[in-house]
Structures are given as C-alpha cells and as structure tokens.
Amino acid sequence: MTMLENLDVSQWYDRNLVGPDNDKIGKITDIYLDNDTDQPEWAAVKTGLFGTRVSFVPLAGARQQGEDLMVPYDKAMVKDAPNAEAEGELSQEQEAELYEYYGLSYSESDSESGLPAESPAPPPPSDAGHDVSGPDTDEAMTRSEEQLEVGKVSKQAGRVRLRKYIVTENVQTTVPVQREEAVIEREPITDANVGQAMGGPALSEEEHEMTLHEEQVVVDKQVVPKERVRVDKTTVTEDQQVAEELRKEQIDMEQQ
Length: 256
Known about the structure:
Number of helices: 4
Strand content: 5-15%
Helix content: under 10%
CATH superfamily of the domain at 2-101: Photosynthetic Reaction Center, subunit H, domain 2
Shape: rod-shaped
Radius of gyration: 49 Å
Structural class: mainly beta
CATH topology of the domain at 2-101: Photosynthetic Reaction Center, Chain H, domain 2
Oligomer: single chain
Largest sheet: 7 strands, mixed
CATH architecture of the domain at 2-101: Alpha-Beta Complex
CATH class of the domain at 2-101: Alpha Beta
Distance between the termini: 54 Å
Number of strands: 7
C-alpha cells in the first residue's frame, strides 16, 4: 500500500488521532492506502515524548470525532505497536505483524473497504447506557487527567577559547655592587723602612697614580616558560524547577 496525495485524505494530515476515551495518541503524519482499492487502511502517527517515534494504527472502526479521528485503541497500545519504518510502503510481513498485534485477522485478499477480508469490526459496548452529551456508552464514565511528561534536550550553551596576550609590569630588585676607593695610609719612619724612605732624592716633586674599579649593574631579559594552560570541561548537575498547569476531570453525581 502507498501514500496517496488525495484532497479527501490529506485533510487528516497533522490532525490529532485519539483513543476511545478521547485521550490524544499523537498527530497524523501520513495516511496509507490499500494498493488495490486506494482506500485508507493505516494511519502513521507521531508518538513518544517529543513526537520522535512513528506508530501505525489500523483505520478499521475509525470515525470522525469533532476535528479529530478516533480509533478503538488506546494510547498505550499504539505506542507499544511493532516498529515499522515510515517509508511510504508496508511490506506484507509488517502488515501481518501489525494486524496480529491489534487483534485483527490478516488476509492478502482484497475487500471493498481497503482492509483485509474478514477483518472483524470492534465489538459494540455491552450494557449500553444513555449518554445525553454524545454517543451512547456503557454504564461507566471514564475520568481522565493530564500528566506531566518532562524530558531533557542537549543544546549548545556557549563557546570557550584560550587567548594569550602580553601585559607589562614594573619589577624592582636590589643588587649589591662594589667599588674601590682611595685611602691614605700614613706610617712613621722606623729602622725597618728607613732604607725605602731614603731611596730617592732628599727633596723632589712626584706623582703616584692608581686605577680604581667599580661594579656596574647590567640588565638583560630572557623568556622563561612558566606553566601550561589548557581548557577542559566538567559536568555540573543542578536542580531546576518545572511548573505547568495540568487539567483533570472530576465526576460528581446529580440526582433529580
């Protein structure tokens, strides 16, 4: 069976598929038709927390419910149906497996409805009561309520990079330096040094010269590696509060 681009059928695209209790099953993405009769046979529905899974639902017993399409299967049953790829056509093996799962008999022979021959219709409800607001149901009323389904998705929060730049700072240090200074020493004439004292002329003019030295500070700079820096990441877990309004049905009895 293949998907048909038909105006009468395509009007159900993106509409809600609901179960017998009006519980939303998912959105209809495709209608699959019988190859021989071109009649609607399967609805492909997006299910799952974020609508990422496609489930197939037989259209046997389906009917219009307001703007939605109602089938006689609940949400849990549809979500647990055998997985089949939504690639435009179901194989006979996939059809047989799906029909068996939904409790319908499978046959390769044709029928006017597009469904396999001898597919049983859903049994009517027993002990039907009179419903003043819609179709007759049994004596019980189903109460439903919304439940919060919370999931998580991963998204990019930012980018981090290392950037190296140069700063200049003033550094002061103290360096001890030495220098030579001339010092005059006087010693008296003694028998030990009289020979040196009288070695020259009696009176004369003389000059003695001495070289003095001193240390000077020489400054040089060299580049020295100090450390290695890298960027890594760690996972931090924090609790976030989620607030949402949920609706639920209440049932009261009125006696007249």
